[in-house]
Amino acid sequence: MIASLAVSSVDLKLSKRTSILTGNYEYYYACGLLEKRSSPGLNGDLSPSELYKRVQDFLSDSEVDPDGDYLIYLLKRYEPDERYDSQMKDLFISGTKS
Asked: How confident is the model at residue 1 (pLDDT cuts 50, 70, 90)?
């Protein structure tokens, strides 16, 4: 996976308010963006299922509203699979620095 594709894809989806997250690479980058913005205590070393649980717990009071905060909309709708590699952690870190 070319990391810049996942970053560009998520950034475009957020700016155009279109589409959904299509894989764990995009998910980890988006979770990094959430960590930067709201500091819910996430980290890129978590397995996809652990990260998903923490994100969903943090966002439990947030509405799934495509007209509201689109990052929250994307994160609440995505269900990761269990595939994980070191690029996902790198993408998470990239999200925290964007």
From this structure: low
Its pTM stands at: 0.94
Amino acid identity, position 44: G
Tokens of 68: 């509201």
Percent of the chain with pLDDT over 90: 88
8-13: Cβ within 8 A, 24+ apart:
10/74, 11/98, 13/70, 13/74
User: What is the predicted pLDDT for the residue at 66?
Assistant: 81
Report DSSP letters for 22-76, one per residue.
-SHHHHHHHHHHHHHHH-----TTS-HHHHHHHHHHHTTTS---TTS-HHHHHHH
Please choose, from the candidates 66, 70, 32, the residue with its C-alpha nearest in 3D space to the C-alpha of residue 51. 32
HSE (side-chain half, CA atoms, 13 Å) at 45? 1
